[in-house]
Design goal:
Radius of gyration: 15 Å
Distance between the termini: 38 Å
Number of strands: 0
Oligomer: single chain
Number of helices: 1
Largest sheet: none
Length: about 45
């Protein structure tokens, strides 16, 4: 794996895209319907 890029990332360093993709993938794997608007899917958003 290579680092670098415009922000000089280290090899394997997480980005905000990775940080957001992980909970979305977990929700999809758990069978949640991801088609709703934010805040409307029960159990996905803390109140």
């Amino acid at each position: 794996m290579f680092g670098g890029g415009q922000l000089f990332w280290e090899p394997g360093e997480r980005t905000d895209d990775t940080a957001m993709a992980i909970p979305i993938a977990r929700a999809a794997a758990a069978g949640h319907d991801l088609r709703g608007e934010a805040g409307t899917a029960p159990g996905l958003v803390d109140s």
